[in-house]
Amino acid sequence: ETPETLSSKFNQLTPKNSTGLPLVPVNPIDALLDQKAAITDVEQQEKELDELVAESQLDSPIPIPVVNYLEPYTIHSFTIPQNGHPPLTKSRLSFIQSQLREIIFEDRIAHVVRIIFHDCVGGCDGCLNRDLPPNMTPMLNTATLLDNLYDSQGFSDWLSRADFYALAGITAIEIGVENANVGCFFFNCIRMPRFHFRYGRKDCATSPLSSGVQSFPEGKDDYDAVMEFFANEFGLRPRYATALLGAHTLGGAAGAAGSGFVGFWKENAIEAAKFDQRYFSLLSDRRLYWNHLDVSAQTGANSPRFQWEGFVNNQQVSFMLNSDVSLLLDIQTNNVGQSSCNFNTCPYSPTALLVHIYARFPNFWIRDFERAFARMIENGSTWLLAV
Ligand code: HEM
User: Is 349 in contact with 329 (CB distance < 8 Å)?
Assistant: First the structure.
């Protein structure tokens, strides 16, 4: 089955409300996921979810740039150029992480995750162009803090700045998961992602500054534009692109101080510091009522900024960009990003089922996120060393 036929099947199955009022249908997809949720054997459940996702052909293999890993640093430090760095040991790594933990909290968690994403567009190289509009957001203050730590502690003896940003990204996700798990019981805790940190990335010659111009995806993008970006840039197929975009569970858009979009993807700053599946559950929650509006007058942006705002009982609980909504709905946008259909009228997009699965099975999402994030933070490297 092609993704198209799967999503059209999904569309047929999902009753739409013609009055435009929020509707909570007994949805066959929910019923199907209820069956999967009833499976108590975790491995069996994961296997069946994998089969369900495989049906939609969102992750058929495509060639991706290959990163080679070298395990025993004692041997390979002789053969692999490391900018003269001595090998990074596990204890040095945990020392650096403990220093990172001193400065990464609250809104800086999201900043760091966005920094590593932007650093890795075009290849992770420890360099950000501070004059490029997509980078000109509050995250630059946190980038300065990271740089100060790296420079003042002499970490360049051990790892490149690009490695350091990647480690900061991993640490930020871990802190976000810890925040999400405060007060959880084992059955509703988010599994801590297992990242295997590898190092040996090459910094650009002017690190940490750069005048390089990368092209970043835009908030007004639709499904095709989003998927094309992730495939071309990171070699990620729609399944892993969707998982990676779950990073928008953290932080928000800073209005006039940032992209000209404004809001937290989740309710407030406290929720925005938690790395959990709620980005997907808000997106797929049919109890929400969504407005699609241009906020450029409010934020002083020089061109339209159409965004989606989700409400429950007249209370705003979510904000989404077109690029986020496109994971669920095949929005129909014009050149300024205004969609001619909405949550009640747009057809589902090929990844809609996946959004529902990630919302219901957070640890299934975490597994896919782990893989996608690992791929992103190794973008541009051909050889990396294990610690
Ligand atoms: C289609 C792809 C993407 C688009 C269009 C997009 C767009 C945006 C925009 C417009 C903002 C708001 C910036 C501001 O005003 O301060 C933002 C924030 C953010 N993005 Fe993305 N992004 C994309 C992919 C990603 C990826 C792959 C990651 C990480 C893996 C990521 C992580 C973040 C985080 C954590 C924030 C919040 C930053 C903060 O609170 O300061 N984004 N993104």
Answer: yes
